[in-house]
Amino acid sequence: MKTFTILFYLIVLLISQNIFSQQFDKKQINPLSNTVAINLEGGGTYARTDFNNDQISYIGQFSLDYFFPSSSKGVFGLRGYSYYGELKGKGLYYNISTKWPTIPEYFTEIAAIGGGLTFTINASKVFYPYVFLGADYLYFNPKDKNGNKLPLNKANVYKNNSWSAVGELGARFFVSNSISLNFAVNYHYLPIDELDDVDNAISNGRTNDLFLTGRAGISFYFGGTKDSDNDGVSNENDLFPDTPPSVTVDKVGGHVDSDKDGVPDFMDKCPNTPINVKVDSIGCPLDSDNDGVPDYRDLCSNTPVGTEVNKDGCPVEEKVIKPIEKSEIILSGAVSFASGKSELLPAAYPELEKVVIEMENHPDTKWEINGYTDNTGSYALNKRLSKARAQSVYYYLINNGIDGTRLFVNGYGPDYPIADNSTASGKAQNRRVAIVLVTGENPEVSKDVKVKRTYNSAIERNVGKMIFTDGSLYCFQVSSWHSMVKAESEAKRLQSKGYKAFIVIADSPQLVGTWYRVRIGYFNSLDEVNKVIAELVK
User: Measured in Å, how far apart are the chain's first and last C-alpha atoms?
Assistant: First the structure.
């Protein structure tokens, strides 16, 4: 019996924890809220007494339930009930009395009236489990099979009434809005041991009698608070009776608009819009030029479609790196070096600083550093001196951040003069260091080796008019979009006209969000690019 009692209260505890731990998505009126139920039920009883063969008998119960108003899945209620039934058993029991005879069986008439508290969960549309705790005033009358009172009952040894504590678990299964089928089991605890007309003094027992019941029945429901749109506001208070499901409303059923932009939260795709900002039909700030920056933050309205903008809605400043205009830079020997020396003079630094900047702006380029002398002195000495001067320039450049693999050093001595060595002015012109842009293959690569060129976007630069090059190949940008779908549509349109269009994804802190750039390429020269651009403009 202790095991059953512990199990019963454990089930009650688990249900209670489940009830109070639930988190509900939104406030709703419980369907049982403010409802009265009439319950008609019948079933069986089973007692635990001093007899060793307690048996199942019958019970019938009538009850009334009232459910308090509730805006959650759980609802408390009050129950009043009355029942009539029988307990019975037979067999043996331990009799130590010399005064009272051993009886073979008992048939105890029971009747009670009582009440208590219910808690019911709206687990689903049709399933409502509940728990009940209460007490009743019980009348009992032990008899034999012929209807005669049993010995102790006949002798009025005990009173035929007692209080009883009741715990019940049950469930309601709704077949319509006003009718449900019910199933329940309950446990009756009593402070007496005479339900079978045998008390502990006779049987030398230590526990009191108790009994269980199991019932099934039907309930009819009346009244209640109606909430047709399930928004948590009763019909009589709901000024907006057709609210869509799962929409948060105020106390009169109005749709909540947290940011006061005129678009209710359930339709608002842009919550927390600042006050007094104009929005569209889905609650998002207006963006008249569709550049991704709302009008209230857009400092450059009417930006052309397809133009990349920064966080202020203004076109991103086009960083243009002009093509290299000078492919050869000459350092005068007289100005840059002392006579017969290879160390650089300070007078050479300003020109070399310009060379460093040019090389940084064009990281894909490679350069030869060629040293030359006039024909004064021995050929071998002039070769060594010209090579040493070229190396001085090389070390200056790499010490200022230029990658040495981009530089190729040569010392040609008096070879390849550019002026007449028979005159002083001619000799001065021949004493020089030439920094020459390498075009075509690297000097180390044999002329008969084919080198496949691939566009390197990591080192690309904008040479103006949204034309980009990595120093070898060229492409140009047609448009830029926030939407990949629109970018793909534009690329397909250009491809259908025979252009090699593709998409480059740009995502940097300078830009507002991600942009999808539509480009056409690749070309071998700037002239080819300009020719295709001219075709598109027509």
Answer: 97
Q: 114 near 137, Cβ under 8 Å?
A: yes
Provide the angle, in degrees to the nearest 10, between the axes of the packed helices 379-399 and 349-361.
Answer: 60
For the whole model, what pTM was predicted?
Answer: 0.47
Q: Which two tokens stand for residue 262?
A: 């005129």
Q: Write the pLDDT tens digit of every residue in 304-356.
A: 877 777 777 787 766 655 666 667 788 876 667 877 888 888 888 888 888 88
Cα–Cα dist 505/519, whole Å: 11
Query: Is CATH 3.10.20.880 the right assignment for the domain spanning 457-537?
Result: no
Pick the CATH number of 328-437 from 3.40.50.300, 2.170.150.70, 3.50.50.60, 3.30.1330.60: 3.30.1330.60
Which tokens is 390 given? 């070229």
Q: Is the pLDDT of residue 123 over 80?
A: yes
Query: Which pLDDT belongs to residue 197?
Result: 87
Report whether the peptide linkage leading into residue 394 is cis, meaning its omega lies within 30 degrees of zero: no
Q: Which residues contact 317 (CB under 8 A, 6 or more apart)?
A: none
DSSP 303: P
Spans of all domains in the chain: 2-223, 328-437, 457-537
Strands (E), 30-104: 35-48, 53-67, 74-90
Pick the CATH number of 2-223 from 2.40.480.10, 1.10.443.10, 2.40.160.20, 2.40.128.110: 2.40.160.20
CA dihedral 490, 495, 500, 504 (to 10 degrees): 30
Average pLDDT of the chain?
82
- Report the alpha-carbon distance of residue 487 to residue 501 in Å, rounded: 10
Tens digit of each residue's pLDDT (9 = 90 or more) over 124-173: 989 999 999 999 999 999 999 999 999 999 999 899 999 999 999 999 99
